[in-house]
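Example 3.2
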Amino acid sequence: MTVDALTDVAGVRVGHATRSGDGWLSGTTVVLAPEGGAVAAVDVRGGGPGTKETDALDPRNVVQRVEAIVLTGGSAYGLDAASGVMAWLEEQGRGVRVGVEPTHVVPVVPAACVFDLGRGGDFRARPDAATGRAAVEAAAISGPGVRVREGCVGAGTGAAVGPMKCGVGTASIVLESGITVAALVVANAAGSVTDPETGVLYGELFQGRVTYPEAHVHEAARRRLAETAAKNAAPLLNTTLAVVATDADLSKAQAQKLAGTAHDGIARAVRPVHLLNDGDTVFALATGARPLDAERPLALNDILAAGADVVTRAIVRAVRAAESVDGPGGAWPSYEELYGRR
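Structure, written as tokens:
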């Protein structure tokens, strides 16, 4: 049975560490690969990225597999969360073997951050190594194939799309071949996720399942968003982050292609996208449990198309799962508060 989440890829686990209140509105999310790691790649298209260890994922470079990926709030400061994940992995003996002893490992922990500084009221309240450790420990103790918490949790705790609250979303699909493709997204874009004329989510327009809000509801939502935007400090930086995972047996080059085409899923759900003040970054993980059909040279195409689709659906779910925030750092109404559940 699937749960329509990243954890539908067997062996992949997700853990969140969330801090809110007392000046906080931030957190960290860790995607933990099966023991032994997964083939990994990345594609960065935003003009203002904050990342760590992404060069190691270049297909030309030596690292083949990673044990975990970190998505975090706190802008570049929050990348320190990866240090806590790295320390935990070292204790487990998980990482690139660099010596004769089993403990002689260097965990490669790619990470990317979203900008949420000050959204809880305290500019200095941001994730650190302890936050990263808490998130990876939460992932490690979670059961296989469990549901993943969505909305204002982990790296999505302080996320917003323009003047509207957002967060974490996830989705999955099983292809006819039996291969699973799934995504987890932290949506924190400078662009909009809604059609300004109707209030419909762009991602739902793409999915073809649209119920249009009544005109008076949309007009009231527009007024509310304009009022809150005027009160909040202008967002300096944003970013949409995603991890796309599959149980297919992919090379690093194929995984990089998956990360690149998955950006199309962001472009369907957010407009405009990949701006200079976005840091849009997509990671790809391949566990290698299922071989590609050797008789079909273009079998990868099915995975590429599915990767973009699940990213779009995950963004829609991130928007719909978010809850409104009104605190010392500002006010961000949620889509559900503005438009109701339809």
